[in-house]
Request: fold
Amino acid sequence: MGRIIEICANSAQSVVEAEAGGARRVELCAAIPEGGTTPCYGEIRTAQALTSSIDIHVIVRPRGGDFLYTRAEVQSMLYDIDMARQLGVQGVVFGCLTEKGDVDTALMKRLVEAAGPLSVTCHRAFDVCRNPLEALEQLIDLGCDRILTSGQQADAVQGIPLIARLIRQAAGRIIIMPGCGVRENNIARIEKETGAAEFHTSARSVLQSRMVYRNEHVPMGAAAVTSEFEILQTDRRRVAEYVQGTSHMD
Reply:
């Protein structure tokens, strides 16, 4: 069947690009510099309206930072899961930990049950849990469909040893999907050394703003990560390289 590529899409337009490049699925997120937060209703609806064949999984994360949530944040997550179900997306993505760094199995059970028939991915909260091998078994028992992980390292290449071990332990009971730092020049190595079949990447390129008048001295955030006149967007050509197993970088 070949490798399955999931694109970390930061907008509805990125979902369009991911589909055009041949990706099987997207994780639709807002606030990528914070590690991804829940996208708004309009972004999800627009992504659905402009595509026809790609699965849309929505991250359910009320804020950046850690994965220990307050009562109010949990309620927000439940509402967002309900929204995702009503919109008819194919999956949701979330992860919750206790203050001691274990999977919060009670809360995860509530969220999985709220998701109903939707596919459930545990995101990289897994990468900061205390005991990944124990967490793997807990997530299987909870009924999660996959785990997105960098192997508890800064990127998936460094995490190859743990990713390979997780895949062996999972033995087909749950999908282990490497993500973070998966690139055209290393995906074949990750695939070969871990045995993974699904991969998570952004495949983004920088687009220049179409603005003619530009005030370069006024950032829109506390600290602008890039120029306000540069837009990061999924690039269909790069997506196609991942899907087809080729690399023709410009």
Q: What stands out?
A: Residues 246-250 have pLDDT under 50 and may be disordered. Residues 71-87 form the longest helix (17 residues). The longest strand covers residues 4-9.
